[in-house]
């Protein structure tokens, strides 16, 4: 992945983070409250935001340093956001509790993104 691609995806995910968070707070409040999942939804938004910032910083690093580790990190962050936050959003709206079993896969992907980031910096720093 190029730095430009990572930064564009980071920008898109940032905009989605704001939109999803606002929609959850205003448009989905009754559904989330009825399902008892307001905190679950907020966790999805928080982790999406955190890792969007990480992705943007990674894209900035990639402008100056080329490393396969950074490519792997960016993929892990994107996949992790999709699976971790996506499963929490779906769980919050549908109350299908079996989705909670998928969430840790996304969490593992996010952790691996950080590990690849560390490896990339360690090898090139």
TrEMBL record:
Main subcellular localization, coarse class?
membrane
The record ties this protein, via InterPro entries, to: DUF423
Any keyword Nucleotide-binding? no
Q: Which UniProt keywords apply?
A: Membrane, Transmembrane, Transmembrane helix
Q: Which domain of life is it from?
A: Bacteria
Question: Pfam families in the record, alphabetically?
Answer: DUF423
Task: Give the location in the cell.
Answer: Membrane
- Give the UniProt entry's GO cellular component terms: plasma membrane
Question: According to Swiss-Prot or TrEMBL, what is its membrane topology?
Answer: Multi-pass membrane protein
* Transport listed as a keyword: no
Q: Which residues cross the membrane?
A: 7-28, 48-65, 72-92, 98-121
Q: Which family does it belong to?
A: Belongs to the UPF0382 family.
- Name of the protein described by the UniProt record: DUF423 domain-containing protein
């Amino acid at each position: 992945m190029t730095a430009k691609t990572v930064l564009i995806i980071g920008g898109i995910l940032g905009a989605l983070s704001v939109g999803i968070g606002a929609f959850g707070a205003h448009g989905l409040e009754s559904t989330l409250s009825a399902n008892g999942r307001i905190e679950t939804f907020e966790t999805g938004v928080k982790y999406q935001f955190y890792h969007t910032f990480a992705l943007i910083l990674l894209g900035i690093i990639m402008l100056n340093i080329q490393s396969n580790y950074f490519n792997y990190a960016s993929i892990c962050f994107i996949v992790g956001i999709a699976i971790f936050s996506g499963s929490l959003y779906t769980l919050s709206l549908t109350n299908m509790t079996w989705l909670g079993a998928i969430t840790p896969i996304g969490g593992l992907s996010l952790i691996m993104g950080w590990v690849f980031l560390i490896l990339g910096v360690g090898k090139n720093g």
